[in-house]
Amino acid sequence: MPDVQVQVFGTKKSKETRAAERFFKERGVKIHFVDLRERPIAKGELTRFVQKFGLNALLDLEGKAYEQSNLAYLRTTEEGVIARVIETPELLRLPLVRGGKVLTVGEDPAGWKQMLEG
Q1: Is 18 exposed, middle or buried (0-12, 13-18, 19+ CB in 10 A)?
Q2: Which of 52, 70, 106, 115 could cross-link with 93 by S-S, CB 3.0 to 4.6 Å?
Q3: Main-chain dihedrals φ then ψ at residue 5, nearest 5 degrees
Q4: Separation of alpha carbons 90 and 34, rounded Å
Q5: Average pLDDT for the chain
Q6: What are the chain's domains?
């Protein structure tokens, strides 16, 4: 097993985040878990995901937080949305996972497996 550094950005309440944690633990991979309720994601880190997937792919458009945020109706810049997401991690499709050069959004076992193949 390659020595992969896996970072999981999520919240303890998110079942998808817990699925990611379980996936890596079952494979004996140490993860660095960042609870976005306790520590907001760094803007540079979030930007890395935005550049790869585009901002809309990161947003949980079905989620309650998105509905309550009125983001669908606000005219705002990408910067404005990014600032909002940093404040309100529930707007994201969690977890955001980074392993080596591989990034994934949401529950993505195929992508997680790819991280381990490194």
Answers
A1: middle
A2: 106
A3: -90, 115
A4: 14
A5: 93
A6: 6-117 (3.40.30.10)
